[in-house]
Write a structure and sequence with these properties.
Layout: E1 25-32, E2 38-40, E3 43-48, H1 57-66, H2 68-73, H3 80-92, E4 95-100, E5 103-105, E6 111-118, E7 120-121, E8 124-126, H4 130-165, H5 174-189, H6 196-207, H7 211-214, H8 217-231, E9 239-241, E10 245-246, H9 255-262, E11 267-269
Antiparallel strand pairs: 1-6, 1-11, 2-5, 3-4, 7-10, 8-9
């Protein structure tokens, strides 16, 4: 069996994947003491409103002596009349219980409260001349038009293929021509969702309503950069400082980031799960490879 030699260039298993780096925060943990539970001093008064039967007192005394009243009704006293009122009241709903006092509280356990402080940094970029910005807009507009024309051409080709593959119900001549034209028009318009997701994507590009064409973030960033450049009086060879933004893991070595971390109480948190190892995309280094730590453990 042929085995591919380890001669090709392998991707590093430590190379970062496409996951976005987490923002840097300094987390300060504060311990908050809980409260102990209290027993309270509730007192219940039982009032019986039904008829009494003195002939059952001997039997009730036996129940109290044997602990039956405590087991069945939770009565811990020794007053036979009160026990009678409680028992008959529970059985016939002829008892009124009035509770006075303050109830106890369950208390709260100790807990930790974490306060996160964001770390900010600023980007530095070269200034751009007005003519260069004008040229960039021309290129962007040119590429946007090219995208719309390309989408329109591809959609027309798909509509033409759809009309060719669709039955015309035996029509010939002018009737077949008109039928094919209607089929192409319906496909281009997306009647009854013709063409599915692919055709809809081409329609969005053709009409300029796709996500990439409606994205205004680049324009906003360009406007903010131009204003910063104007306010800072920067020339084309100067550096322009952007507005503060939340620093991420790639900014950890920046001087302003390190200064904020040093002057903020708490532990540094990169808010990231780490970079996963790309075992399946590498040659020679696998999960069960002897190069991995702990491979020989237990062998």
């Amino acid at each position: 069996m042929y085995n591919k030699p380890i001669t090709q260039r392998a991707k590093s298993p430590l190379k970062q994947t496409t996951e976005e780096p987490g923002n840097i925060t300094v987390d300060n943990t504060k311990k908050i003491n809980g409260t102990p539970p209290t027993s309270g001093n509730l007192v219940s008064k039982i009032e019986y409103t039904g008829a009494r039967d003195a002939g059952v007192y001997p039997a009730l005394k036996k129940e109290l002596a044997s602990g039956f009243g405590k087991r069945e009704y939770g009565y811990e006293g020794t007053d036979v009349k009160e026990y009678e009122r409680l028992k008959l009241g529970l059985m016939k709903n002829n008892v009124k219980v009035t509770t006075t006092g303050t109830p106890g509280t369950p208390g709260t356990p100790d807990r930790e409260e974490v306060t996160s402080t964001g770390i900010y940094t600023k980007d530095e970029t070269d200034a751009i001349s007005p003519y260069a910005a004008y040229q960039n807009r021309i290129v962007e507009k040119r590429e946007g038009g090219k995208l719309e024309r390309s989408a329109k051409k591809n959609l027309n080709n798909l509509a033409k293929r759809y009309a060719q593959d669709t039955d015309d119900a035996g029509k010939k001549g002018v009737e077949k021509f008109l039928s094919n034209r209607k089929q192409r028009r319906d496909y281009r318009r997306g009647v009854n969702d013709l063409g599915g997701e692919k055709a809809q994507e081409l329609r969005d590009y053709r009409d300029g309503v796709s996500d990439v064409q409606l994205d205004m973030s680049d324009n906003v960033e360009t406007l903010e950069r131009a204003r910063n450049q104007r306010k800072q009086g920067a020339n084309k060879d100067d550096a322009v400082i952007s507005k503060p933004r939340l620093a991420n893991a790639t900014d950890i070595l920046n001087e302003d980031v390190q200064g904020q971390i040093a002057n903020t109480k708490g532990d540094v948190n990169l808010n990231s799960d780490g970079v996963p190892m790309r075992y399946d995309q590498n040659v020679g280094i696998k999960k069960s490879s002897p190069m991995k730590k702990g491979y020989f453990k237990g062998k």
